[in-house]
């Protein structure tokens, strides 16, 4: 019945007076601060200093191109390391996507890692939210070595 009377009052152009409610306790409290999300969207950075240094004021497109060119120079070095470690490396999309395989994709103890050198994103085991910011091949090799040691021992 209350709903009907408020609708009729609205139609007639006479809005029904609504008593003002006191503010609740939660609106008086400070809002909780959200955890600042990492700019890159990666959960952590790879150890070591990258070969391609950050240049202040450089645009992201030119930085991505420079990072890609730099890492393609070391492609042969990474391929040799993969052979020694028993990994299979597949580079596609003009060098923009590097995929590393160890064992079968579904076998226990296997490793599947993807790396995009231009954006420095390394994802291990398709865990997209736990990406690692890996800027160059040396950092990449270090991270993959650590993962291989862990998989073989534990």
Write a structural description.
The protein contains five helices and six strands, in the order ααβααβββββα. It is α+β, with helices and mostly antiparallel strands. The protein has one domain (44-153). The chain has a six-stranded mixed β-sheet with strand order 1-6-5-4-3-2, with helices on one face. Strand 3 and strand 4 form a beta hairpin. The relative contact order is 0.15. The model is unreliable at 18-29 (pLDDT under 50).
Secondary-structure map:
Elements: H1 2-12, H2 25-28, E1 44-45, H3 60-73, H4 75-85, E2 88-92, E3 97-102, E4 111-116, E5 121-124, E6 132-133, H5 137-153
Parallel strand pairs: 1-6
Antiparallel strand pairs: 2-3, 3-4, 4-5, 5-6
